[in-house]
Amino acid sequence: MRKFFIILFLLVTASLSAQTSRLGHQRAVHLTKQEVVVATDLYRKMMQSQTYKLFEEERKVFSIKLKGVNPFPDTTEALNWPGDSIRNYTLEVIKNNLYRTDFASVEEARKLLISTNALMSKQVEENPELYDLMSLANAEQMREILSPMFQAKRDELLEP
Fold first, then answer.
1. Cα–Cα dist 27/30, whole Å
2. Where in the sequence is the domain holding 94, given as residue range(s)?
3. Would you say residue 18 lies in a domain?
4. What is the rounded CA–CA span in Å between residue 1 and residue 62?
């Protein structure tokens, strides 16, 4: 599940970094301290949205059904793959390891993966200011911005 988060994080940040910011200007890739505070607050607010909650539910289901199978490429080289290459790679790994997962079929995995990706896209569309800021953040700032999510995950793990 940790690799799923890492790959998802890398995919989102790479795709956002590859785009020109909707803020309408280009600058060095980093935020001011105030922008980090604003982005962290926006992330915290996004976590309360229905889209985020649905995304998290589907991501959890996908992770649980994988039963430890890692269907994601291990290198950041995959971030430069065209189009649906990562999705195709993921589904190919699931197909080859279907017996080790809880997916009834590759089609079930494909539908869940597409649905999860659609929720992620909707989340980006609903939070343009946040994702604009994230596209300019460096790695240390991204850790700070995402800290509410990391804290929620720690809290979830510590629940009795």
1. 8
2. 2-10+32-152
3. no
4. 9
In the block, residue with structure tokens 């460096």: 138
Domain total of the chain: 1
Average pLDDT of the residues in 3-13: 47
Contact between residue 4 and residue 63 where contact means Cβ atoms under 8 Å apart: yes
Least confident of 10-19, 27-36, 43-52: 10-19
37-68 burial: b if 16+ Cβ within 10 Å, else e: ebbbebbbebeeeebbeebbebbeebeebbee
Helix (H, G, I), strand (E, B) or coil at 105: coil
The one-letter code for the residue type at 18 is A
Q: Is there a domain that residue 127 lies in?
A: yes
In a domain, 37, yes or no: yes
Band (127; pLDDT cuts 50, 70, 90): very high
Closest CA to 5 of 160, 159, 146: 146
Q: Is residue 27 part of a domain?
A: no
Residue ranges of alpha helices (H) inside the chain are 2-18, 33-46, 50-66, 85-96, 106-126, 128-136, 139-145, 147-158
